Amino acid sequence: MQKSKSEGALSFFKNSxxxxxxxxxxxxxxxxALPHGKRNNMDAPRTFEATSEAQHQFREMPHCYASMSKKxxxxxxxxxxxxxxxxxxxxxxxxxxxxxxxxxxxxxxxRRFVTTHQNTFTGAxxxxxxxxxILAGHTKHQRFLAEK
Length: 148
Hints:
This protein has about 150 residues and is of the alpha+beta class. The protein contains three helices and two strands.
């Protein structure tokens, strides 16, 4: 680019598209840029935009799962809901149904409120034998039938 001696240094920047300065000034043999004025940030009040760790962890998230077609993008997290498999919804109980269950592995519901006498009473005629072998075999057979 050639310029004539009649043009000054400021005419060199006449049609430039530089947005970092409002203008140019020549001081001696140096050309200096005029900066933009300072912004007045006192007009707008500062608001707290950060979130606490608890707010970040328990924020409301859209329902996402691994095989979803259009998941929202988010930063990587090993426990992210978008990486988990889809789970079935919990069954909704009936309006008037009780949800209390009395389950105990030692509880047999079939004979739950039966007394000891009702458990052992068979109504059979008493045995008139006193032979211990016969009595033992008969008792063994009765216990086998009671366990069924």
